[in-house]
Each structure stands twice: as C-alpha cells, then as structure tokens.
Amino acid sequence: MKIRFIFLLLPAFIVMQGCVKILNDDLTAKETKLVINSAIDPDSVFEINLSRTFNIFDDESSNNLPFIDGADVKLYENGNFLFNLDNTGTGYYRKDDFFPVVGKTYEIIAEKEGFKSVSASTTVPGKVEIIQFDTVSVTNPGDYGSVELDGLITFQDPEESDDYYMLSAQILYPDANYYDSGWYNLGLFVPDGMEKLYENSYGNLLWSDRYLNGKEVTLQFGFFYRDQYAGGGYPYPVEQDSVHFRFCLQHVSREYFFYSVSFFKYHEAGGASDPFSEPVVIYSNVKNGYGVFGSYSQDTVNFKIVANSYGMKGGEK
Questions:
Q1: SS3 of the chain: helix, strand, coil, percent, to 5
Q2: Which tens digit of pLDDT belongs to each residue from 235-286?
Q3: CB burial readout 85-112, b (16+ within 10 A) else e
Q4: Cβ 137 vs Cβ 308: under 8 Å
Q5: pLDDT over 90, % of the chain
Q6: At 219, is the secondary structure helix, strand, or coil?
Q7: Measured between alpha carbons, how far is 279 from 259 in angstroms, rounded to an integer?
Q8: Any idea which fold 7-124+284-295 has?
Q9: Is the pLDDT of residue 303 over 60?
Q10: Rounded distance, CA 99 to CA 97, Å?
Q11: Same fold for the pair 7-124+284-295 and 130-251+299-316
Q12: What SS3 state is found at 220?
C-alpha cells in the first residue's frame, strides 16, 4: 500500500497526503535552499519530492509554488551509483520499476543550478509483524450512546538495535450516500497512564523501543469514539451492521521518527500561523538543505466491529 509523504513548504498540512514546512526561524531573508522530502518503503516505487525553502515574506500564491523541476537527482544504493531519477513534474522524481530493499542504505544527491547540492541517506528497516490485534474494552457507553474503544497490538521488537514505530488507522465508509466511499484516516489517542511511551502526531502514535528493546510487547491505545446523538467523533451509518478498520504498524527509520515528532511539536507551538511563538527546531537529515529522507516497512491488519445504533456489540478480524 502506497502512502505518499510530501513534506512541502506550503501553508497547510495534510496528514498522510502531504506535510508542510515553512521556515520562519528568522524574519530576515536567508539563502534559498533545496528541500528533499520522502519516506520510501519496499512496497512502493522509489519517489522523492524536491522543493525550495519558503521565506515568511515570500509570495505564497499558486503562481509561486516552491516545486523544483529540471534538477539532476542521483540515487545510490550502499554507496554504488544506480541511476538518475526521472522528473515527473511538480517536484516529483521517481523510478517506476524500482522498489527499495530492506536493509539497504539509499542516498540521494540533488543538484540544481542556483542552489547548493544537497544529499541525504536512509537505511530501510525490516517489517515488524503484528502478532495479534484485538479490542479490549468499550469505555463509558453511558446513557447517551458515547462509545470509546481501546485496542491491543502485539509485536516482537528486534534485539540489539534502536527501533522506532508509528501506528496509524483508517476507517472504511462503503456507503456513498453517507460519505464518499473509501478509507479515511482515523485519529488514535493515548490511554491514561501511557503518556510517557507515546508521541502523538496528528492522530498517529509514535514510540521508540527505549523501554521495550528485544521484547514481545503488547501495547494499548484508543482508536474509536462515537456519540450517536451529538454526531461527534467518527460516526458511521446506524443502519450498517459493522464498521471496518485498517491498522498499520510501521517500523520507521530514525530520521523519519524524529522529523515526525519535531514537526508535530512545531505546529503545536503555533508553527507558521504564529511567527512569534516559542521556536521549535524541525529535525532534518538533508545536508546543505532541509527536509527529511526517511524510510519504513509496515504490516497491516483489518478489523471489523459489529455495531448497532446503541453502540458496539463485539468484533472480529
């Protein structure tokens, strides 16, 4: 499954479809630099996005988009040159018949006239499989139809390595008369007492194996809320007899993890909307530029919850 990460310098942030970074750490004009943004995975063709930095005083109209086309973008695998990536427009560079390989280290070198050459590298982590997934409780169903559902996910953390994870979820709306049919991002939340373990990034949960190294681990998280009367949370048609979810456990690279955590903290602090907010340094692994070149492998599980207009009745895979 391809999940495209576009960490561009635009004034909006869209989870799982695009990420935005506006460099406003200094109100004075700075040297314009190239920005590499990509999160590669073994299940998708190799693709990156190349753009330029956006100063806070720059024209943000559609006539001044920061995408960089016509650059020379070279790809290396374990130090060996492979090929130049093909420019497909709006800053995208890809190779349609090439898929990253687990355990390999990939380096990107991008050159464009008028800019300093930039480079970045990442090593693709292996897939960490979901051993078991289940629901554990329905919390506070109350008298008003409020439903909060907790989940449990079990996996084996690899030994003798620093490992980083991201958990995301989607909900399926098959009824086009209610919502447009298809999978929609579903926000996850941290249960009480587990705040020290998780980082929360736009409804995705991130954590490291600092306290879990080499162990088989079962983690709890919150993933569903519905108030049938107020219409809050993530509703579903009451005439449906089940709700379908998809959960993705991503084993992410170190640079991808730290970029995601720092980017969320940047926006929590006010980000581009408040130039006088407390400064937050956004992590970057791009030499002579900005952005992130990271990687991940993922395992997914689909889960069905049987439901009616009064709440949740149970679940099955």
A1: 5, 45, 45
A2: 454 445 677 889 999 999 999 999 999 888 877 776 555 566 666 788 999 9
A3: bebeeebbbbeeeeebeeeeebbbbbeb
A4: no
A5: 48
A6: strand
A7: 15
A8: Immunoglobulin-like (2.60.40)
A9: yes
A10: 7
A11: yes
A12: strand
